[in-house]
Amino acid sequence: MKKPVFRSADDQVMRGVNAKQILFIIGRGNWCEVYTSGHVFRVDKPLPYVMRCLPQLCLEKLDRSTAVNLFKFGGLEGNKIWLGPYALTMGPAFARWMKSLFRNDSS
Question: Which of 19, 32, 62, 82 could form a disulfide bond with 66, CB atoms 3.0-4.6 angstroms apart?
């Protein structure tokens, strides 16, 4: 499988993006926006393809078009998940799943 090419917002070709810096990815049909703490990159491939190219990340689907890197989890606040400087709105099912990870059932 050929690795996707990351492009910055001004359409310059960017290579060697450190996958560990990825916070989340938003699918936009046949292309994606890849968010890091400092940049947004465009990838000319659909979200499922990009997710398969990044198996070393702990990517979970937040909703149909958004995948989050759980290694970059910063906190939960109501129905929002914090990833770096970004707060993304979670759907009810994902919010329940995330909150269940922190529930203490040992009592």
Answer: 62
Three-class secondary structure assignment of 27-40? ECCCCEEEEECCCE
Mapping DSSP onto H, E and C, the string for the chain reads: CCCCCEEECCCCEECCCCHHHEEEEEECCCCEEEEECCCEEEECCCHHHHHHHCCCCCEEEEECCEEEEHHHEEEEECCEEEECCEEEECCHHHHHHHHHHCCCCCC
| Residue 25 belongs to domain with CATH number | 2.40.50.1020
Q: Indicate the number of domains in the chain.
A: 1
- Domain span at residue 63? 6-101
Please tell me the pTM assigned to this model.
0.82
What pLDDT digit, counting tens, does each position of 19-77 carry?
A: 888 999 999 999 999 998 888 888 888 999 989 888 778 889 999 999 999 999 999 99
